[in-house]
Amino acid sequence: MHDVAARAGVSVKTVSNVVNGYPHIRPSTRDRVEAAIAELGYRMNVTARNLRTRRTGMIALAVPELSLPYFAELADSVIRAAETRGLTVLIEQTSGSRQREIDVLAGRHRDTTDGLIISPLELEPDDLGLFDVDFPLVVLGERIFGAPADHVTMNNVAAARAVTEHLLALGRRRIAVVGAHAGESVGSAALRLQGYTEALEAAGIDVDPALIGEAGLWHRSTGAETMGRLLDSGTEIDAVFALNDAMALGALHALHARDIDVPGQIALVGFDDVDDVRYSVPTITSVSPGREQIAGSAVDLLVARIAERDGDERAPFRRVVPDSSIIGRESTGDVPRRGEERVVSVQHGSTEDFEPLPSS
Amino acid sequence: MHDVAARAGVSVKTVSNVVNGYPHIRPSTRDRVEAAIAELGYRMNVTARNLRTRRTGMIALAVPELSLPYFAELADSVIRAAETRGLTVLIEQTSGSRQREIDVLAGRHRDTTDGLIISPLELEPDDLGLFDVDFPLVVLGERIFGAPADHVTMNNVAAARAVTEHLLALGRRRIAVVGAHAGESVGSAALRLQGYTEALEAAGIDVDPALIGEAGLWHRSTGAETMGRLLDSGTEIDAVFALNDAMALGALHALHARDIDVPGQIALVGFDDVDDVRYSVPTITSVSPGREQIAGSAVDLLVARIAERDGDERAPFRRVVPDSSIIGRESTGDVPRRGEERVVSVQHGSTEDFEPLPSS
DNA sequence: GGCCTGTTCTACAACGTTGTACAGTGGTGT
DNA sequence: ACACCACTGTACAACGTTGTAGAACAGGCC
Q1: Residues of A in contact with B47 (CB under 8 A)
Q2: CA closest to D14 C1', residue
Q3: CA-based nearest distance B49→chain A, Å
Q4: N or C: which end of chain B has fewer CB within 10 A?
Q5: Do the record's keywords include 4Fe-4S (chains A, B) (predicted)?
Q6: How many degrees, rounded to 5, is the angle at CA A254 between CA A252 and CA A257?
Q7: Nearest protein residue by Cα to C1' of nucleotide C16
């Protein structure tokens, strides 16, 4: 920058002003500076600017694992959303490690990023205090409610209820669940199970514990195992609600291994609407939680908090729930021809302010 | 850092030395400094250090899209490999845009990262000049050979040949290909097709153009379409070699839609060994290109180049080809029981120095 | 003419580290 | 007794940018 200034016959600060688009610059000066920049092939040193301005133009995204399709697609969406707002994304894999999630919240990337979007998998309501950080933060997911940070979450209960109602409407009565977490009252598992329960109760059907299949990690393998256990138990089953798509794919695998026809004998529904379920055999009906909206809202909320950083006004914490919808496919016999799909129902989202819960 | 120094009664530089583990420090001094750090809750400003040292501890990874499972899994592996070496990874999605790949090579993240690992999808041998950059660079993939940078690539020809030989050994004679790129002489498509051709010729079988299915983008959807076209063409087919797993899954979908039994009527093999093919119905035999090794080698090569930056010695450019193997599964009838898998064959990799090709 | 406002540019001092050069201090070998 | 070395710590000047304050000038208004 010094060299450019010398060559253009102006001060260093003027070069800085030109580069940053400061308006009050005589056109002739601007041209001279730009010419000098071009001739010398000058490029701004981003690190120095970061140091001086205390901004980096990067945000961190902490997700469990990219090898899980849901998070890979989420990361994809967040990166695109950030890009349109001029931000770069740094991805941190927490790998199902509680300590890694704590590290990230403790500000592992505080200096190199302007803010953090985290999708916690291991932290619990008891850890609410950890979310009281001094940098812009947006929380994703259903594990943590009431943290002192903006929150983007899915329409879990409503969507799960709609899924169950849909299966009931199709005449299914013995609806198994794959992926329950016994004893949990928060998290996707609990909320989706709640929707399931509500739908059954509304229909006057008792929840049969024999139909509730546990699965700790929500992977394809655990989905297959859990489905296998349910089938081997001898319980009568005519439909399966897998609490996410990975498990639905695993469950499908287990059903296939036992020569059970889907949807002929057993109907199957997943959750997340990842790309995979559109190409499995048969294709799987799933809940589309509004991934683009989740990513877009998360980035927007974070950008707003980053902008807020300079002043001293703090907007109230905000919770965003995007619209979700059930995409009917072959596994529920919802489509006339193979490969087709149709929106079976839509659950409307919402946006609201909330008060953080006190942390212990 | 000033405050810490004052509190500990030492100079700022001494604090710096303590933080950076400089050995010649009296234990008592070290203790005082560490106590002061703890009391004040001091944390080093990474940006300032980056500016001063011209190192960031971050590397960039440029891949087409995270929503493609192969790249999501690759990113996962690279992140883990980098982590064990104390590096953080910045992911750049090039989204199948030529311009984005050029931007990254032009040094979009030059200041914020210490080096770049790029997996080009759009750049061609004509663009070789773009790879002559002044920062540490490692190239992945089969599109670019001879660039002035270290290169990690798969054992494409050998693996494809082995796949084809395996299908021949199983008695298949009408082996279709899904995903060919007509007219290309570089890239995964050309190399894998070459392996296919070599195997057929070695077996004294003519290559039938009617069996070669084109597919531009290697997605599930294109795999399904291409498979559909091949089947509708009426050509006799008893095996399919999909040039990647995404297309294999799409092809499986198309086969299922026509009630064709796999492997009864048609055997199916993919390439990449992504997690998906272990849970499809049936499970799909695939080439495992050694993803962990690719990621590990790429990071190692980059780390070596980064270390080289200070001195003026330059090691010759290096090409690493990891071992690959064929994992036999249900789609080729290679396993006795459902869900099992076995290594059908292994192709050994190599490491060699090479001279870059002249760029036009 | 004097005052004010707006434009254009500059000088200086940060931002928070680390590299360099050097100054003590104490021990060792001759 | 002296030179020499290893250890321990310090002062200063960078790294490359931007915020701040203000100078110089022009034009408009009373």
Answers
A1: 47, 50-51, 56, 111-112
A2: B52
A3: 9
A4: C
A5: no
A6: 110
A7: B48
For residue B78, the chain A residues in CB contact (below 8 A) are none
Q: Are A301 and A252 in contact (CB under 8 A)?
A: no
- Report the pLDDT value the prediction gives residue B73, as an integer from 0 to 100: 94
- Alpha-carbon gap: A204 to the closest alpha carbon of chain B (Å): 36
Q: Do A220 and B275 touch (CB under 8 A)?
A: yes
Tell me which residue in B65, B79, B339 faces A76 most closely, judged by beta carbons: B65
CA distance A14 to A12: 5
- What is the distance between the alpha carbons of residues A179 and A172, in angstroms, rounded to a whole number? 19
Cα dist from A153 to A119, A245, B165, whole Å: 10, 17, 50
Compute the CA torsion angle B122, B127, B131, B132 (nearest 10 deg): -170
Q: How far is the CA of B140 from the C1' of C1 (A)?
A: 75
Domains, chain A, ordered by start? 2-44 (1.10.260.40), 56-154+291-323 (3.40.50.2300), 156-289+324-348 (3.40.50.2300)
Q: Is B23's CB less than 7 Å from nucleic acid strand D? A: yes
Considering only CA atoms, which residue is closest to the C1' of nucleotide D9?
A: B14
- C-alpha distances in angstroms, A18 versus A5, A15, A33, A264, B108? 11, 5, 7, 69, 20
What is the mean pLDDT, run by run of 10 residues, along chain A of 360 residues? 91 92 90 93 94 95 93 96 94 94 95 96 91 95 93 95 97 96 89 96 96 92 94 96 95 91 96 90 93 96 91 89 96 89 95 89
Taking all residues of chain B, what is their mean pLDDT, rounded to a whole number? Answer: 93
Which pLDDT tens digit goes with each residue over B11-26?
999 999 999 988 889 9
A270 vs A259: CA distance, rounded Å:
20
Q: Residues B172-225: pLDDT tens digits? A: 999 999 999 998 888 899 999 999 999 999 999 999 999 999 998 898 889 999
Q: How confident is the model at residue B328 (pLDDT cuts 50, 70, 90)?
A: very high
